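Quick start: what a row looks like.
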Amino acid sequence: MIITEITRNIKREQVNKRCDLLFIEWYESTKRIQRLRTEEGMDIALKLLGKTSQLHNGDILYEDADKIVVIAIRSCDVICIEPLNFLEIAFISCEIGNKHLPLFIEGNELLIPFERTMQTWLDKQGIPYTLASRQLLSQLNANVDANYHRQLKFSTKGIPLIINA
């Protein structure tokens, strides 16, 4: 079965049908084209283009009279950091960005998929962290589409830039 769009998310409604779960890893949620198999053995080919290019926990991919196919993101080992102040957040985020690691947020915590190099760096810096197993659901994304930059360029036209040293 080829899926080209996500119909809706199960969180927003009550469904009285059998749920066939499609378990994926956190990094598979951003892949646009992939072949997967549900818990009950149904083969699914995803070809998500356009604005529906990311899968979220609870997304409904398929529905018929008696069952629905729902995305379930697996838990994985993560490094949990609870920053104490703004400067610490900036320092940690800069290092995570320099290593090109994904960063997730849950409540007051920064979550990073477990990487030994990041753990070693945190130990050297004396930054407290905990290791846990969690679902990575809310990835911070710094990518901005080209239209945003065009709008920003024209909306700030004529505004002088003042830098105080």
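That is the whole record. The radius of gyration is 20 Å. DSSP finds three helices and eleven strands in the chain.
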